Amino acid sequence: MGPGDRPSRPLYTSAERHRRDASSWTLVQGVLAPVQFLIFLVSLVLVLRALATGQGQLAAEASVVVKTLALYAIMITGSIWEKAVFGRWLFAPAFFWEDVVSMLVLALHTAYLAALATGALGGQALLILALTAYATYVVNAGQFLLKLRAARLDGTGTRQAHFAEALS
Q1: Which of 118, 116, 103 is nearest to 60 (CA)?
Q2: Domain limits, the chain
Q3: d(CA 49, CA 81)
Q4: What is the mean pLDDT of the chain?
Q5: What is the reported pLDDT for 129?
Q6: Which residues of 24-44 are buried (b: 16+ CB within 10 A; e: fewer)?
Q7: Mean pLDDT, residues 81-99 taken together
Q8: What is the pLDDT of residue 68?
Q9: DSSP 3-state assignment of 122?
Q10: How far apart are CA 63 and CA 59, in angstroms?
Q11: Can you tell me the distance from the alpha carbon of 87 to that of 143, in angstroms, rounded to the nearest whole number?
């Protein structure tokens, strides 16, 4: 081990792993994560179509609202899951940076809803804001996929528990 190397803490302690596996919120996250991802994919296609063709603006806008509601659901239940597993509502050390980026994702999606409700942005600008929110969502999902990989390498993960984390 070199001078700059630190032994890494496992993603979950034994007690946290037990709480994660015993929590019903793990299953909830396992269901919501892929549902949210599918909503994202459909919405992304609708948003890109509306931007490219100028058609389907209303469908694209509505799809972003549905995606945002799915995001709220997974964020609220994810916070409950984090409290059940780590004893904190958010920003547990094991998921600190994922939670930080999740807050940016949430802020951008909420800004979309506010702009839609107030008419603060025109149609194209609104969809560009949605794409910005979606780009941060993809970064956040990537963070969780990397965490999933680390947990598997660490030997502490179960497929069900980490599937939810990978896509939230």
Answers
A1: 116
A2: 14-167
A3: 36
A4: 88
A5: 98
A6: ebbebbbebbeebbebbeebb
A7: 95
A8: 98
A9: coil
A10: 6
A11: 21
pLDDT at residue number 92: 94
- pLDDT at residue number 163: 47
- What residues contact residue 102 under an 8 Å CB cut-off, 6+ apart? 75, 78, 140, 168
Q: Residue 31 pLDDT more than 60?
A: yes
Residue 76 tokens, joined: 């609220």
12 touches 145 (CB < 8 A) = no
The Cα–Cα gap between 21 and 157 comes to 9
Q: Are the C-beta atoms of residues 162 and 21 closer than 8 Å to each other? A: no
CA distance 63 to 117: 15
Asked if residues 64 and 47 have their Cβ atoms less than 8 Å apart, the reply is: yes
Quote the CA–CA distance of 59 and 95 in Å, as a whole number: 34
**Which tokens in the block code for residue 114?**
């506010």
Calculated CA dihedral for residues 70, 89, 28, 59, nearest 10 degrees:
0
pLDDT attached to residue 155: 65
Residue whose entry in the numeric block shows the structure tokens 């942005």: 121
Q: Could you tell me where the DSSP H helices lie in 54-122? A: 57-86, 96-118
pLDDT in tens, 121-163: 999 999 999 999 999 999 999 998 888 787 777 764 444 444 4
CA–CA dist 113, 30 (Å, integer): 26
